[in-house]
Amino acid sequence: MRKPADCDSMAHVRAEIDRLDETLVALFAERAAYIDRAAQIKSRVDLPARIEDRVEEVVANVRRHAEAAGLPPDLIEKFWRRLIDWSIAREETHLGPDSLRKG
Length: 103
Description:
It is a single chain. The chain has three helices and no strands. The protein is mainly alpha-helical. It has one domain: Chorismate Mutase Domain, subunit A (Up-down Bundle), CATH 1.20.59.10. The longest helix has 36 residues. It is elongated, with a radius of gyration of 18 Å.
């Protein structure tokens, strides 16, 4: 693992980006496992996939982390909202669509 400043060629930069991409995919897979577990628990306690208060809590947390890391919070929020939508759709494969759940 090289620090960005220690990369003296595009090959070094690309190798580190590829390493990080592999790590990110593994982290997304881990996150998906928690999403699947959440769907199992929600099914038992009759909760919908989308819980708007939680969505906004996650977005606020991510914006705060982005700011602390020096990343643009608006861009990170847009990316994360897509991830949240994907996660909710994944939960709905277990729970059924929220629109069909009893209210």
